[in-house]
Design a protein that fits this description.
Number of domains: 3
CATH architecture of the largest domain: 3-Layer(aba) Sandwich
CATH class of the largest domain: Alpha Beta
CATH topology of the largest domain: Rossmann fold
Helix content: 10-25%
Bound molecules: FE2/S2 (inorganic) cluster
Shape: globular
CATH superfamily of the largest domain: Nucleotide-binding domain of ferredoxin-NADP reductase (FNR) module
Strand content: 25-35%
Order of helices and strands: HEEEEEHEEEHEHEHEHEHEEHEEHEEE
Amino acid sequence: MDTVLERMEAVQDIEAGTLDVRVKQIRYEGNGINSYELTSPSGKMLPPFDAGSHIDVHLKNGVIRQYSLCNAPAERHRYVIAVLKDAGGRGGSRAVHESLHAGDIVTISIPRNHFALAAGARKVILIAGGIGVTPLKAMAHELEMRHVDFEMHYCARSPEAAAFGPELEAMRRAGKVHYHFDDGDDANRLDLKRLLLEPAPDTHVYYCGPGGFMAACADAASHWPAGTVHFEHFKAPEKPRREAGETAERAAGCQVTIASTGQVLHVGPDQNLADALNEAGVEVPTSCCAGLCATCKVRYRDGEVEHNDFILNDDERDEFLTVCVSRPAGPTLTLDL
Ligand code: FES
């Protein structure tokens, strides 16, 4: 149990929304996957987090990337992230693998959570695709601690490509974790349709993985009751090309009104709304700039929105938009800023 003094010190650390941590240990977890254990340089307890939380990691090249915390949320002495080196990515995972070393001090944000476990579930099904296992592993730890019935399905190409083998072994032996290795043999793939065939009472589904996997999970879970299926993208899926008609509609751009001041901005057809706001002196914090983290979530009052994020649910989209990727769908929009 942390002391009051330790808790106060942690709060002082997080006043700016960021804290410095030391890379205590880097561990090979699987093909192309390293885990990074982050601890307080002075040995303090770290701010608490819930399963599904992520942190921003400020990399040496000025890039900020979000990574899910994958250790047990009950642990207060460390955060653990795991990063798959993605040669085709935007460069963040490469920078982590190549520039972070044991002993380094790195700036991170306090944990934020847009993928929390819903309260009251009697059974939970966790479905992980590749490195999407990270938030689900934290959930497995939390569910185990809370004595909630769960099963985790972990899809990976091969045993060598699956992370956290030793840590998940006890859960595997207990029949809680099931591996599905599909390299070369379709018969080994997880049959998502079968797994999710019958929605069960008080059962919630959580999934995270690459684009094709996410689409397959969404399809297999499409008949489950509203509010029982939860997901998080760790990478923005490919966007379909804009149709010619849609491009013409955008040609004139749109007028965005700032509710508190009455200021009206013109947002050009190809202009990013977050950029337009910042250029006009209306500051909105951003982080992932890819519609994945909700840092730039802003309430809107009227007008139609073209939602291009991968984080807000339908209810949230009735009220909010993420200005880094979303934009007005009509000629006018009022923002609650
Ligand atoms: S900055 Fe992450 S969703 Fe906009």
